[in-house]
Amino acid sequence: MRYPRLFFxxxxxxxxxxxxxxxxxxxxxxxxxxxxxTRSSAPSSPAPLTASLVVRPFSAQPPYHRDRMVYRSxxxxxxxxxxxxxxxxxxxxxxSLTRRSLQQSGLFTTVYPTPDAQADLRLGGVVRQYEEVDxxxxxxxxxxxxxxxxxxxxxAPFWFRSYTATRPATKRNPAAVAEAMSQxxxxxxxxxxxxxADALATKSAP
Length: 206
Prior knowledge:
With 206 residues, this protein is α/β, with parallel strands linked by helices. It has helices at 7-23, 90-105, 174-201, and strands spanning 30-32, 49-55, 59-60, 68-74, 77-86, 108-111, 121-134, 139-151, 154-168. Strands 1, 2, 3, 4, 5, 6, 7, 8 and 9 form a nine-stranded mixed beta sheet that branches.
């Protein structure tokens, strides 16, 4: 049986291309999370207030409202990693870690684990900046959030603060940026606990 003359070149090309596709490794998406150190005991603070707290879900300004990691090399241009992402949306991650930190702070009689609990005070927040900033010799993690406090019977906040932390990453890669971002959050939460203690000491909490 005779085959067309072009059959064998086509067959050879198909085998070569097929072999390449079989050996080519597909890049997998890497996921990153913020972590806070586990405290063996609550930090020194004033006596617990006779008030309970609920941490409401934080929101995030675009482009930080999704799980893709944001980076930029100039003040005017944003970009997103495709294969490097946060394990969950930044606002959700910060809500959970803020709640855990305040539970350990000893400032409140109770910090409820769910956002719909009936508490004396409510803490809310918004993520304003959550990004990697690439510079010539180093990468930086920048975190900026705004938080406010309101009473359950008064929807309008009676206390408000804005926090920003910037820290260089130890290496120029997304994992090191996630580590630096975790340290940024730790710094901000320590300042937050201190400021809440001062604010509530001068106000009748509930």
